[in-house]
Design brief:
Shape: elongated
Number of helices: 5
Structural class: mainly alpha
Number of strands: 0
Radius of gyration: 24 Å
CATH architecture of one domain: Orthogonal Bundle
Protein backbone atom coordinates (compact mmCIF):
# COMPACT_ATOMS: atom_id res chain seq x y z
CA UNK A 1 0.00 0.00 0.00
CA UNK A 2 1.31 3.44 -0.94
CA UNK A 3 1.30 5.87 1.95
CA UNK A 4 -0.12 9.32 1.40
CA UNK A 5 2.21 12.19 2.14
CA UNK A 6 1.49 13.85 5.46
CA UNK A 7 2.73 17.30 6.37
CA UNK A 8 4.97 17.48 9.41
CA UNK A 9 3.71 20.39 11.48
CA UNK A 10 4.11 21.21 15.16
CA UNK A 11 1.11 19.08 16.19
CA UNK A 12 2.34 16.01 14.28
CA UNK A 13 5.89 16.54 15.58
CA UNK A 14 4.58 16.68 19.16
CA UNK A 15 2.87 13.31 18.60
CA UNK A 16 6.14 11.92 17.25
CA UNK A 17 8.11 13.31 20.20
CA UNK A 18 5.61 11.84 22.67
CA UNK A 19 6.02 8.41 21.09
CA UNK A 20 9.80 8.78 21.07
CA UNK A 21 9.63 9.56 24.79
CA UNK A 22 7.74 6.28 25.26
CA UNK A 23 10.69 4.45 23.73
CA UNK A 24 9.29 3.84 20.26
CA UNK A 25 11.87 4.40 17.53
CA UNK A 26 11.35 6.97 14.79
CA UNK A 27 11.36 4.20 12.19
CA UNK A 28 8.54 2.37 13.99
CA UNK A 29 6.55 5.58 14.42
CA UNK A 30 6.82 6.44 10.73
CA UNK A 31 5.53 3.00 9.70
CA UNK A 32 2.07 3.85 11.09
CA UNK A 33 -0.49 4.86 8.45
CA UNK A 34 -1.36 8.11 10.22
CA UNK A 35 2.28 9.28 10.41
CA UNK A 36 4.52 10.89 7.80
CA UNK A 37 7.44 9.02 6.29
CA UNK A 38 10.84 8.92 7.99
CA UNK A 39 12.28 11.08 5.21
CA UNK A 40 9.52 13.68 5.68
CA UNK A 41 10.27 13.92 9.41
CA UNK A 42 14.03 14.24 8.96
CA UNK A 43 13.58 16.79 6.18
CA UNK A 44 11.18 18.80 8.36
CA UNK A 45 13.61 18.98 11.29
CA UNK A 46 16.37 20.02 8.89
CA UNK A 47 14.32 22.94 7.59
CA UNK A 48 12.28 24.13 10.59
CA UNK A 49 14.03 25.38 13.74
CA UNK A 50 10.94 24.88 15.96
CA UNK A 51 10.52 21.26 14.86
CA UNK A 52 14.25 20.70 15.39
CA UNK A 53 14.01 21.99 18.97
CA UNK A 54 11.05 19.70 19.69
CA UNK A 55 12.90 16.71 18.26
CA UNK A 56 16.19 17.48 19.98
CA UNK A 57 14.89 18.41 23.43
CA UNK A 58 12.10 15.89 23.88
CA UNK A 59 13.57 14.35 27.02
CA UNK A 60 15.65 17.12 28.49
CA UNK A 61 12.86 19.70 28.48
CA UNK A 62 9.90 17.62 29.66
CA UNK A 63 8.89 18.31 33.27
CA UNK A 64 9.94 16.00 36.06
CA UNK A 65 7.27 13.94 37.82
CA UNK A 66 5.45 15.62 40.69
CA UNK A 67 6.72 13.55 43.63
CA UNK A 68 7.99 14.43 47.08
CA UNK A 69 10.76 11.84 47.37
CA UNK A 70 14.03 13.35 46.13
CA UNK A 71 15.43 9.90 45.42
CA UNK A 72 12.69 9.30 42.84
CA UNK A 73 13.47 12.64 41.17
CA UNK A 74 17.19 11.85 41.18
CA UNK A 75 16.52 8.45 39.64
CA UNK A 76 14.36 10.03 36.93
CA UNK A 77 17.07 12.57 36.12
CA UNK A 78 19.66 9.79 35.86
CA UNK A 79 17.31 7.72 33.67
CA UNK A 80 16.83 10.67 31.33
CA UNK A 81 20.58 11.33 31.18
CA UNK A 82 21.17 7.70 30.26
CA UNK A 83 18.46 7.78 27.63
CA UNK A 84 19.79 11.02 26.12
CA UNK A 85 23.34 9.65 26.03
CA UNK A 86 22.06 6.43 24.43
CA UNK A 87 20.16 8.41 21.79
CA UNK A 88 23.20 10.60 21.18
CA UNK A 89 25.46 7.55 20.82
CA UNK A 90 23.03 5.75 18.52
CA UNK A 91 22.48 8.84 16.38
CA UNK A 92 26.22 9.41 16.11
CA UNK A 93 26.64 5.88 14.78
CA UNK A 94 23.70 6.06 12.36
CA UNK A 95 24.07 9.69 11.31
CA UNK A 96 27.65 10.77 12.06
CA UNK A 97 27.00 14.36 11.05
CA UNK A 98 23.59 14.61 12.76
CA UNK A 99 20.16 14.99 11.27
CA UNK A 100 20.67 18.64 10.32
CA UNK A 101 24.41 18.85 9.79
CA UNK A 102 25.90 18.03 6.44
CA UNK A 103 29.18 16.28 5.86
CA UNK A 104 30.52 19.42 4.18
CA UNK A 105 29.93 21.38 7.42
CA UNK A 106 32.00 19.00 9.55
CA UNK A 107 35.43 20.25 10.59
CA UNK A 108 38.08 19.05 8.19
CA UNK A 109 41.55 17.91 9.13
CA UNK A 110 44.04 20.54 8.14
CA UNK A 111 47.80 20.47 7.81
CA UNK A 112 49.85 22.90 9.85
CA UNK A 113 53.11 24.28 8.49
CA UNK A 114 55.61 25.65 10.97
CA UNK A 115 58.31 27.99 9.77
CA UNK A 116 60.68 30.47 11.39
CA UNK A 117 62.86 33.33 10.35
CA UNK A 118 66.26 32.52 8.99
CA UNK A 119 65.27 30.26 6.17
CA UNK A 120 65.74 26.56 5.66
CA UNK A 121 67.46 24.13 7.97
CA UNK A 122 70.47 22.43 6.43
CA UNK A 123 70.58 18.80 7.49
CA UNK A 124 73.72 16.92 6.56
CA UNK A 125 74.36 13.22 6.68
CA UNK A 126 76.88 13.36 9.56
CA UNK A 127 74.67 15.56 11.78
CA UNK A 128 76.72 18.73 11.73
Amino acid sequence: MIKKSKTVNKKVMQQIVDKLAEGITLTEICQADDMPSYRSVTRAVQLDEDLWELYRNMLAMSPLPDVVDQRVLGAEVQRRKLEIETLRWTTARNQPHGVRDKKEDAPQQQAITISWAGGDVDVTKDGG
